[in-house]
Amino acid sequence: MRLPRRAALGLLPLLLLLPPAPEAAKKPTPCHRCRGLVDKFNQGMVDTAKKNFGGGNTAWEEKTLSKYESSEIRLLEILEGLCESSDFECNQMLEAQEEHLEAWWLQLKSEYPDLFEWFCVKTLKVCCSPGTYGPDCLACQGGSQRPCSGNGHCSGDGSRQGDGSCRCHMGYQGPLCTDCMDGYFSSLRNETHSICTACDESCKTCSGLTNRDCGECEVGWVLDEGACVECDSSCVGCTGEGPGNCKECISGYAREHGQCADVDECSLAEKACVRKHENCYNTPGSYVCVCPDGFEETEDACVPPAEAEATEGESPTQLPSREDL
């Protein structure tokens, strides 16, 4: 039923609040759909292999099986199980390409045993072979055999999309993913392989696994006697291990007897906790203010139990009666 114009206009604000439709980029690509159909077809071949045979006359079974193996009956069983009835795109693609699948099954399977390569790459031209990309299926950076030197993902690999550039795995960088990032060092490199291994946590750059192999120390670490050592937690920069080698102290600490020590804010002349009856407890680098057990906490004070009960027991001031006025 068509809505009256006034009612339809009233729905406009609601329509504007509806979430946007999913982006087209999230829709499966033709290559993805083709690969999915091939995967289901291959699974169908597995499911129908030696179907309804086993346990009888072996010679008869082998003779009969050889006929069933490449028969139209088996093809029909595979095709019937490819798509769920609710999968519109799968059924649409199957209907459009059924003759191709039948031709491969009955005539071309022995010559082109890889259905994906024949169907998706060479016939429909919606995919590329692994290690290639783009409309013309060009080799990825680093070659189609080991794209990105095996240390990254080639943009568009196996599809008719992308630009063939490398997105390197963690620890690797460079156009071919053969160089090591900061925090990693080259543990193996030759004409075909490059392997980057993580440095010790103390190193920003390194040439080996230990804290003595650092080229530069990470922030919060310092080179001391040939090794990167961690600054004390009380330091802002340091020249060595321990609180006595701090360049500066962090907030809540002060230099005392040559090293950074915790400041006891609760013992200072100026009170850290200013509410009445409030207790002060020192913590490393800071302090906390807490009311004693049983005291009621208010914005301005910690109220003792007796005072709190008395306050609660007081009756509110009564307004004068009409007669008194």
UniProtKB/TrEMBL annotation:
InterPro entries: EGF (IPR000742), EGF-like_Ca-bd_dom (IPR001881), EGF-type_Asp/Asn_hydroxyl_site (IPR000152), EGF_Ca-bd_CS (IPR018097), Furin_repeat (IPR006212), Growth_fac_rcpt_cys_sf (IPR009030), LE_dom (IPR002049), NOTCH1_EGF-like (IPR049883). Keywords: Disulfide bond, EGF-like domain, Isomerase, Redox-active center, Repeat, Signal. Residues 136-178, 262-303 form the EGF-like domain. Disulfide bonds join 168-177. Its EC number is 5.3.4.1. It holds the Pfam family EGF_CA. Transmembrane segments: none annotated. Belongs to the CRELD family. This is protein disulfide-isomerase. It comes from Pan troglodytes. The gene is CRELD2.
